[in-house]
Write a structure and sequence with these properties.
Two copies of one chain form a homodimer.
Chain A lengths: L1 H35 L2 H32 L3 H34 L7 H27 L3 H25 L7 H33 L9
Helix pairs in contact in A: 1-2, 1-3, 1-4, 2-3, 3-6, 4-5, 4-6, 5-6
Chain lengths: 218, 218
């Protein structure tokens, strides 16, 4: 029985890595679609989000079945409960990548962002991709040095998010209302993507150290 | 043992109702603060969000302890797992109410929204409050008629959300970039608040009927 349980826990971990890999691919494609006005790539992100949703739902079923059949306690229980939360965050990160792709599709053949902010958004995309990659690595290896790296990436992302608003609300902003709406939403999507990555990283850290990151301080 | 367990399940339910009540109060005050530029009320919402966070964290601890000590199965297990998810959504709804209050505080003594859109935002706020109230009632009574009402409210909310973008992107929009950013964010916060309410309502429905709403289709 014990051996079956360890196999099941390993399957939970592998499935989280699988979903995180798909999320990384989604944000990578969404970022390219967004920066380069690549509508074909945007369509792929949008069409494939259901795969992330289905894998997250299936992982939730697995985790719930493990709770019912194996009745884990202590650290094993925390792993299964955390897996439920991590899958919810990964599913949401997939949605946010999809939203970024939708902005690219909507504005095609134009680019979503005016020239003055393109470097900023390219950097936000680069940080989101880096965080997603590190998350996959963290879920695979539990190398906790990655947690601090993810936090640092998120701090940089938050600074860029603030700088977008400074630019849009400054006197030199030449964008029309469409530009302003799109930039506001895109920046928000990137920022939330990063928040979820940090939230997951903290859960992995907690599993390794026993220190829980309280809800709302994530 | 069984009796203790039923008491614990009841406590989970009571705590969800308690958090939902605080969320209702937060969105009610945030909406008034936003519509009437009431900075004192905005400050209250912002200052009190930590209470929602703390109650959600404490409920998560209780639910995890129930899983460990009572090892529930079948419907009881689903209730506890669902409670974890519902508390996460309620916590997020509290954050969104806080974000709306922050917009009001930031723009004080001005109003956040230009005259042309004030009726729309008043209606969005009214719908969010109604959904939060119905959610509290649903969590208390499990009266499933409320689920459809909450869905209908959310459909109306989504229409208003679309109409905000139509207005901002139309030719008669006279707002500057600050107006456009604030209206975009506020509308998004209201819409996400409604999404979480529907997501919770579906989980309660599932507990009553056994029909699960898959992740990503919420």
């Amino acid at each position: 029985m014990r051996e079956v349980f360890q196999q099941e826990l390993q399957e939970v971990q592998e499935r989280l890595v699988e979903i995180s890999t798909l999320v990384t691919s989604a944000i990578t494609n969404a970022t390219t679609a967004f920066n380069e006005s690549n509508v074909a790539l945007a369509e792929i992100v949008i069409a494939e989000d259901h795969k992330i949703d289905a894998l997250a739902a299936s992982l939730d079923e697995l985790a719930t079945n493990i709770l019912a059949l194996q009745q884990p306690v202590a650290r094993d229980l925390r792993i299964v409960v955390s897996a439920l939360r991590i899958s919810a965050s990964l599913e949401r990160m997939g949605d946010l990548a999809e939203h970024i792709a939708q902005l690219a599709r909507y504005r095609y053949p134009d680019k979503v962002v005016k020239k003055s902010l393109r470097t900023t958004f390219a950097e936000m995309g680069r940080l989101d991709i880096a965080m997603a990659e590190k998350l996959t690595q963290l879920l695979t290896t539990e190398d906790l040095r990655l947690v601090d790296e993810i936090r640092n990436d998120d701090d940089a992302l938050d600074e860029l998010h603030v700088s977008v608003f400074d630019a849009v609300l400054g006197e030199t902003w030449k964008g029309n209302a469409v530009d302003t709406v799109d930039v506001t939403l895109a920046s928000r999507y990137h920022e939330r993507f990063g928040d979820h990555a940090v939230s997951i990283a903290k859960k992995v850290q907690y599993l390794a150290t026993g220190e829980w990151a309280p809800v709302g301080q994530q």
